[in-house]
UniProtKB/TrEMBL annotation:
Superkingdom, natural source: Eukaryota
Organism: Thalassarche chlororhynchos
The protein's name: LST2 protein
Any GO CC annotation of this UniProt entry: early endosome membrane
Length: 159
């Protein structure tokens, strides 16, 4: 029931699905590719939900303000805004996001890169913590969570 244990298994699931996608030829099996993309979306949403709970438990008073969320339609907020933001960041870095003007993309790409690098660092640190001391959040863990929360909020705000 510990959040870090839940995180570990959710992170393993994301890693496994990504490996399956990377090993698949989408042109030869487009149906399986779509199934795996859906599994990736669901597993990332689950991972982000657990990460959100960890941040609420670990750094509740250090969270970045989310007052700007009122600018988003309610159906987007209900449908896991974080997962949409993560997908947008990944698309920006891949250069495949069509709904963004080039000037905005130039400004958003460095933020997207920082956000995704921060997420990878959080995943690494939390995996290590879940294997060594799954019941505690030492200062280095809190520090990477605060940084990730700040970068995620800044990316959402610019969006």
């Amino acid at each position: 029931p510990r959040l870090l244990s839940q995180f570990f298994f959710a992170d393993e699931r994301v890693t496994r699905v990504v490996a399956e996608i990377n090993g698949l030829d989408a042109e030869l099996d487009p149906q399986q590719y779509l199934v795996l993309l859906n599994q990736l979306h669901l597993s990332q949403a689950h991972l982000l939900a657990i990460l959100e709970r960890i941040m609420e438990e670990c750094i509740p008073t250090q969270r970045h303000s989310r007052d700007y969320l009122v600018k988003f339609p309610e159906e987007l907020l209900v449908d896991n805004l974080g997962n949409h933001m993560l997908f947008a960041a990944e698309c920006l870095l891949a250069g495949t996001f069509l709904e963004v003007e080039e000037a905005d993309g130039v400004q958003l790409r460095p933020q997207a890169r920082n956000l995704l690098c921060s997420l990878e660092l959080v995943r690494t640190v939390l995996r290590e913590q879940s294997l060594s001391q799954p019941g505690s959040y030492p200062e280095p863990v809190r520090a990477v969570l605060v940084q990730f929360d700040r970068l995620f909020a800044e990316f959402e705000l610019r969006w």
